[in-house]
Amino acid sequence: xxxxxxxxxxxxxxxxxxxxxxxxxxxxxxxxxxxxxxxxxxxxxxxxxxxxxxxxxxxxxxxxxxxxxxxxxxxxxxxxxxxxxxxxxxxxxxxxxxxxxxxxxxxxxxxxxxxxxxxxxxxxxxxxxxxxxxxxxxxxx
Amino acid sequence: xxxxxxxxxxxxxxxxxxxxxxxxxxxxxxxxxxxxxxxxxxxxxxxxxxxxxxxxxxxxxxxxxxxxxxxxxxxxxxxxxxxxxxxxxxxxxxxxxxxxxxxxxxxxxxxxxxxxxxxxxxxxxxxxxxxxxxxxxxxxxxxx
Lengths: 141, 144
Prior knowledge:
Strand order of the largest sheet of chain A: 1-4-3-2
Oligomer: heterodimer
Mean pLDDT of chain A: 93
Low-confidence stretches of chain B: none
Strand content of chain A: 35-45%
Radius of gyration of chain A: 17 Å
Number of helices of chain B: 8
Strand content of chain B: under 5%
Number of strands of chain B: 0
Structural class of chain B: mainly alpha
């Protein structure tokens, strides 16, 4: 068994796409719109070089798939930052932080040394949190 | 393009508290980040997150102070300033109220940093923030 895709709600697929590709540097893996499914758009992105795992940028549906109250609840949870987190790893957290900041990513946590390495945190436009960790475990572990 | 839900602006203010607690940040600054008047902002923030922005900012600072007490050898006065609080007296009072012990006693009771599990920092921050307590709860009901 392997993880293929993991889904993230987004409030606007176009804005999410711009963020994940232009700011974060991800690639579009699939972008398919299905007219027979009410123009449902299957949109997935992945970091360059990691092609066996992607994030699904999923629009929050309305009725009949999701009732209006639930749609509102998901939108609220997402906007409050409680809908999901993506944990990313990198070889150089500080360099990536500088590059992303240069491209206008707003960080919630700047790079800091932790017992497990260096990491920082930011959000996508919908409020989903992303963490970027350079894992450096002590040699004796 | 779909507009972000209103709570997204409140999250921006909450994120500001998390990112810049070390600076002399006040509720006014958080309200500005959310683009709302102070009174309206405080009401909406409490409705979204269940506590006032003042309490959120204070407990964030105390959580960071507790982490510094556990993980560094900085003095209590240094830590107070490092987390954006101005007065050591009120820091000690607030800390004792939330954690049930003074900063010095808290540090003495903490296990060495090497004993900590390697949980991502965001998880530590989210789960270690103390529950807010008011002075009315001080008489005998404080957590030891």
